[in-house]
Amino acid sequence: MADYIEGKRPIIEALRTQVPIKCVLLADNAKRDSLVEDILRKAKRFDVPVKTVPRKLLDEVSDRGSHQGVMAETKPYVYVDITEIERAAASYADEHGGRALVVILDHLTDAGNLGAIARSAESVGACGLVIPNKRSARVEASTYKSSAGAIAHMPVARVPNLIQVMARLKERGFWIAGASEQADDIIWQANLKGKIALVMGNEAEGLSRVVKESCDFLVKLPQEGEVASLNVAQASTACMYEWLRQNS
Asked: Could you tell me which Gene3D superfamilies the record lists for this protein (predicted)?
């Protein structure tokens, strides 16, 4: 099923951040204002075709009815097989003293959070992200925006079973660290050296029971304020940078 970006300014932002766009659909009666002209210029610069279509077609395709006479059809994100991330991790470990990081996301629901996590993961040198292929956020236009384009450089595997992936990684020398508010150990006290698979939970419920039970150990971030917890993207960033600190 095709994904669409609706509205002039969102399309301008998508073109600016180089979201993979298949084509721009322009209504045959669209007013050629400065925003539309900007879309046409950027589309030409990035070799994105522009198709003039009946406005009725946009009305039928639109989810929110806010297309303003222009929509962009995005290209599907190309996911990788888990074996590709495993190979990348093995190669990275060989070149970086045995360290490697893979991030597993246990049924995150927000595509923007997925992008923010991808941005941090790319920054620390993670070898890939693993997400479930059902009941989980997937890579879409908002992911590119929140990742500042980093998602284009971060392999993502969609898998049917996270537990099986965790078991595969253990066989390849990874320790599985789950981030949980119920953990006894503060992350600073945990050993994150070497090959680590960091597991982050769902925005509302955290790690599921079966995923938590499959982790080798659990860690939590220290907290001194009144807010119960950090956003999952913020928490992921803090945990990933602690892995990088310990391995630097």
From this structure: 3.30.1330.30, 3.40.1280.10
- Give the Cα separation of 162 and 199 in Å (integer): 10
Return d(Cα 22, Cα 43) in angstroms, integer: 10
The greatest distance separating any two alpha carbons of the chain, rounded to the nearest whole angstrom, comes to: 63
Residue range 87-145, pLDDT digits in tens = 999 999 999 999 999 999 999 999 999 999 999 999 999 999 999 999 899 888 788 87
d(CA 36, CA 84): 41
| Fold classified for 3-74 | 60s Ribosomal Protein L30; Chain: A; (3.30.1330)
Look up the CATH architecture of domain 82-246.
3-Layer(aba) Sandwich (3.40)
pLDDT digits (tens, 9 = 90+) for 64-97: 778 899 999 988 888 999 999 999 999 999 999 9
